[in-house]
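To fix ideas at the outset, we first show an illustrative case, written as a sequence plus integers encoding its fold:
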Amino acid sequence: MNKPEIIVSGTRPSGILHVGNYLGAFKQWLELQSQPNNKCFFIVVDLHALTTPFEPKILRDTTLDFAASFLALGIDPNKSTLFLQSEVLEHATLAWIFNCLTPLGELERMTEYKDKAAKNEAGINAGLLSYPTLMASDILLYKPTLVPVGEDQSQHLELTRAIARKFNNKFGKIFAEPKNFALKPLRVKSLTDPEKKMSKTGDEALLLDDEPKEILRKLKKAVTATEAGSKASGVENLFFLLEQFSPTDEVNFFRSAQREDTLKFSELKETLAKNIANYFEEFREKKKELLSKPDYLAQVLGDGSHKARHVAGQTLMEVKQKIGLL
């Protein structure tokens, strides 16, 4: 990346982060942060967590847990702006303005809304429907040039671009249409059902917090092509993880054994468990230390929110002037 970029991305505080989250998002966020001229905004989007059933204490604890995870993984508050969405009130204000510009049909056709509505028709709320306009405000307040999103969020980013275009045409140009910094394809699958993506719950997920024994226990249960009812994708999932967390010579050794039909899955799983545990050992220790210092976490998030409000406030002031709000 040659020219400076403004980058905005975030994650909803729910569950516990797993290796799929790391490979699919955080690893690439860290690469973007490492470019000296980039300006990165990373958001713990806690308002989005209110769109589905939640418990206040669990939400509070999970939000702090996510903040500690961001820092332990390497998000540096001296290089990037890390903050809580709910602490920057401009997000909700701009989202309301976007609600009043966005046709209802545009929101109803969002795939994620339709999927969740189909699963929980009785529990649908207005927040879930207007989730994409809040996401648009999360993004456009900071006038980014790039937004790293996975395939499941690309439709929301396209709506964000459409909202920016509609606002500019109606009231005068403020927003650039941010480009999608396409995240590398995420191929981490459930250990127990490799036809599905790895989720944040159950024995199907390798959590970043898992201790070495727990990682090995879960990997031992991972399905392989030689086990009844399983598919070859389970084996490829293990090899994909091996390629991410192991030296090349080990990958080559097990690939060769696979070709020669001498592969022992017990050895593959033990090696993979050891390598993943070692890879995230520093993360686990840092996170434990950070969680023991809640005042420090609050200070980091407070400082980040202050910096974010400075930028968001300027953008909202421009918007209010354009649309006639005093």
In short: The longest strand covers residues 6-11. The beta strands are 6-11, 39-44, 80-84, 146-149, 179-182. The mean pLDDT is 91. Residues 294-323 form the longest helix (30 residues).
